[in-house]
Write a structure and sequence with these properties.
The strands form two sheets. This protein has a five-stranded mixed beta barrel with strand order 1-2-3-5-4. The protein is of the alpha+beta class. The model has no long low-confidence stretch (mean pLDDT 92). Helices cover 35% and strands 22% of the residues. The N and C termini lie far apart (59 Å). It is elongated and about 65 Å long.
Length: 251
């Protein structure tokens, strides 16, 4: 029987049988896994507060005959603040959904783990614009799962470019004026330059980047396009928030 002690965040949960829960974890050591927390639904369970979405902690897990089981949890931070703020809740859920669709079971990715924990703390402390933080995280996600974006050279011919007005989703970057523009989207030079900056900045520094609303819309459209291009499932967590924002503007 293999036992692991690892830091992890809870991506999502599901009731299982009468008193148990299935917990989907993104662990530092062994990647994304699902595990059973026995008795977690009971009022006096030792797992009651440590098996909620977004909880970050030190988990002791072991592999049973068919699934992992959670043996112990020491909470580092519950991130319960997200549950009291609709915008934070939605964006945190979106980050978790991205991790879920981008990684295979037991696919270890320590750097991506560090990025999502960093993003959690930045969101909790309301550092900078959460929308830009999420766009920067999307770029990191693509990079650390093998789909790094190139904003320094034409992604088709390789010629060095300072900016571009077209992004190609298949090749993952900007296109120079001489190459064919297909399977992509046009964008302003401002949006391109912001993408270049975000791709080079660590998450801890993206709060320094100020972006206008029109450019934010461009960034969302472009990065969502890359996510659809490279992963088998489309994330849905932001859909309702985007509808809500549009309705609020029209009131």
């Amino acid at each position: 029987m293999s036992t692991y002690k690892t830091k992890a965040i809870i991506l999502k949960t599901q009731d299982y049988k009468e008193n148990d829960k299935i917990i989907w974890l993104f662990t530092e050591k062994i990647g994304k896994i699902s595990a059973i927390a026995k008795g977690a639904k009971k009022n006096k369970s030792k797992f009651l507060s440590s098996t909620l979405p977004f909880c970050f902690g030190e988990f002791v897990i072991y592999r049973g005959k068919s699934m992992y089981l959670i043996n112990e949890v020491q909470i580092i931070h519950s991130f319960g603040e997200f549950l009291n703020d609709l915008e934070m809740l939605t964006y945190a859920s979106y980050l978790n959904e991205l991790i879920d669709i981008a990684l295979l079971e037991e696919e270890s990715n320590r750097e991506l783990f560090r990025q999502v924990v960093t993003a959690y703390y930045l969101m909790k402390n309301k550092v900078g614009d959460v929308e830009i933080l999420v766009r920067a995280f999307e770029i990191k996600l693509l990079s650390f799962t093998g789909y790094g974006l190139n904003f320094q050279n034409c992604c088709i011919c390789g010629k060095k470019i300072s900016s571009s007005n077209y992004i190609n989703f298949s090749y993952g970057g900007g296109v120079c004026s001489e190459c064919n523009k297909q399977n992509g989207v046009t964008l302003t030079n401002t949006a391109y330059n912001v993408l270049k900056i975000l791709s080079n900045f660590p998450l801890e520094k993206v709060h320094r980047v100020s972006v206008k609303e029109d450019t934010k819309k461009e960034l969302y459209k472009i990065l969502y396009g890359f996510i659809l291009e490279n992963y088998q499932k489309a994330p849905k967590s932001l859909n309702m928030l985007n509808v809500f924002k549009e309705e609020s503007k029209n009131e």
